[in-house]
Amino acid sequence: MKFLDLAKIYVRSGSGGAGCISFRREKYVEYGGPDGGDGGHGGAVWVEAVEGLNTLIDFRYQQHFFARDGRPGMGRQRSGKKGDDITLKVPAGTEILDEDKITVIADMVRVGDRVELARGGNGGFGNLHFKSSTNQAPRHSNPGQRGVERTLWLRLKLIADIGLLGLPNAGKSTFLSAISNARPRIADYPFTTLHPNLGVVGVDDTEFVMADIPGLIKGAHEGKGIGDRFLGHVERCSILLHLLDCTNENIAEDYRTIIRELEAYGGMLAKKPRITVLNKIDAIDENRRQILRIKLREATADPVMMMSGVSKEGVLEVLREARRRIDDRRAVENSLKSESKPWQP
Questions:
Q1: What distances in angstroms separate CA 144 from CA 17, 20, 84, 199, 203, one per listed residue?
Q2: Distance between CA atoms of 145 and 83, rounded to whole angstroms?
Q3: What residues pair up with 33 in beta bridges, in sequence order?
Q4: Helix (H) or strand (E) segment spanning residue 172
Q5: Which end of the chain is more exposed for a tag (fewer CB within 10 A), N or C?
Q6: pLDDT digit string (tens) for 258-272?
Q7: For the residues of 281-311, what is the DSSP string, one character each?
Q8: pLDDT tens string 44-59
Q9: Is 293 in contact with 278 (CB distance < 8 Å)?
Q10: What residues contact residue 157 under an 8 Å CB cut-off, 6+ apart?
Q11: pLDDT tens for residues 119-157?
């Protein structure tokens, strides 16, 4: 399945049915009168976050979604049938944006979230509705209300426990393929990863989701490279795993480059919990490892771990640290949820 995280759609709700003008005429009925029914309401357009989806690729092949119009009213006080609603199914983490691509209409964070995008038009009143003591034979009705047309954008921000960050060729895809069943494309040139990859990682009877984000470069927040398109996915990650290629000469500058891009992007990205890891240590000796570790510790106050995605050295320790951070974060979130619940006897 191809990955798509941005899609433009056109939605239109159904128009309401027109009211009916009708009079009762029956044999052996002494008094007739108006009996025109109301028109049916138009169908609405809904969006719902469902389980089992992690891409918006379905909206590349269909962009127009129109709900059914309501049926007009009929005689004998019969109302028109309501138009059928339509529901767009999107993965959890999808944002619904207005046509300007800035205004957020809805944020579908959890599976089961459901939002109405376009409400159907009301059905028109039939002439029975206008009957009164002073107007016993009304000969007018209302037309149905027109439906709503909207142009919207769907933007997906993947939800993962851990997001992999780093410069191109930092070894993110190799690491993900080594610890999960994900099979991202791996090559010896920059920007091999063109779209995020998700993998389920298991360690010590605990599972969590890890996202491989395409590599960032200096100026990514301004649109350079391709990483700026995917920084939004990092917003949904609980923990950031920052991988650094220890074969590069200036390891401290590589670290600061990524941090500056997170700060320039805005939001809370730069303040998210991070695990800093020196990767590819199988390519250098022990003396060089310690030198790079000291240089990196001078650039960051966080502890520095070391591993190799190829030889698996240090991988288990990194995963256990990630699991510990995730468990701590989940414990805090659960305690906040329990405190927010109202007291019940």
A1: 5, 11, 16, 50, 60
A2: 13
A3: 24
A4: helix 172-179
A5: C
A6: 888 888 876 677 788
A7: GGGS-HHHHHHHHHHHHHH-SS-EEE--TTT
A8: 999 999 998 888 989 9
A9: yes
A10: 5, 93, 94, 95, 232, 233, 235, 236
A11: 999 999 999 999 998 998 899 999 999 999 999 999 988
